[in-house]
Amino acid sequence: MPLPASPLHSFVYLASQSPRRQELLQQLGVRFELLLPRPDEDAEALEAELPGESPDAYVVRVCALKAHAAHARRVAGHHPAAPILVADTTVTVDGAIMGKPADANEAVAMLERLAGREHEVLTALAVVDAEGTLLPSALSRSKVRVANVDRAALQRYAATGEPFGKAGAYGIQGRAAEFIERIEGSYSGIMGLPLFETAALLRVARVEF
């Protein structure tokens, strides 16, 4: 006789502070609870690049590191067992990884590098199931074409504060949309949580939605 299927989980932990990821999970109808880094955790250290690392390898590795850290956080905090969803997004152009700008000048410099050309947005997903096993990860790859925007417009955009905390110094769901000529791939993936891949992983992890 076949073994009975494991029960569905009524919610998932989301190990991300991103309001966009929270909105996208709500769009899927997924119940979630936040599982954020503790004050003593150095979350930024997990995002350090390795010499010669490709953008694909980087984003998948960082996502897995964040997933393991989130699982350890759940266990240490004695939180109820449930799957944990983790995502990491990076922007890449000319093989270089573009992180989050430290200030307005760096934001403008990043945006000038993207202006008038196409770049890639990579979002990796990882799920740790309720038993603590890291499931095979998923990688969403999208292409974005930015218009040839002048420096003054980019400076005005940077002054809004929107680029901060965002890979590549822009958020497609915000005011930066006026600079985007076209995209190829997943709009939700560019926002930071590709819904098709997310839904597939959550089904594997037996999350109810």
UniProtKB/TrEMBL annotation:
Name under which the protein is recorded: dTTP/UTP pyrophosphatase
Biological process (GO), any one: nucleotide metabolic process
Key words of the record: Cytoplasm, Hydrolase, Nucleotide metabolism
InterPro entries for this protein: ITPase-like_fam (IPR029001), Maf-like (IPR003697)
Active site residues per record: 88
Compartment(s) where it occurs, according to its Swiss-Prot or TrEMBL record: Cytoplasm
Gene Ontology MF term list: nucleoside triphosphate diphosphatase activity
Pfam family, one: Maf
EC numbers, comma separated: 3.6.1.9
PANTHER family: BIFUNCTIONAL DTTP/UTP PYROPHOSPHATASE/METHYLTRANSFERASE PROTEIN-RELATED, BIFUNCTIONAL DTTP_UTP PYROPHOSPHATASE_METHYLTRANSFERASE PROTEIN-RELATED
Cofactors named for this entry: a divalent metal cation
Catalytic activity: dTTP + H2O = dTMP + diphosphate + H(+); UTP + H2O = UMP + diphosphate + H(+)
Job description of the protein: Nucleoside triphosphate pyrophosphatase that hydrolyzes dTTP and UTP. May have a dual role in cell division arrest and in preventing the incorporation of modified nucleotides into cellular nucleic acids.
Source organism per UniProt: Caballeronia arationis
Family of this protein: Belongs to the Maf family. YhdE subfamily.
A GO-annotated cellular component: cytoplasm
Positions marked as site (Important for substrate specificity): 20, 89, 173
EC class name: hydrolase
Membrane-crossing segments per the record: none
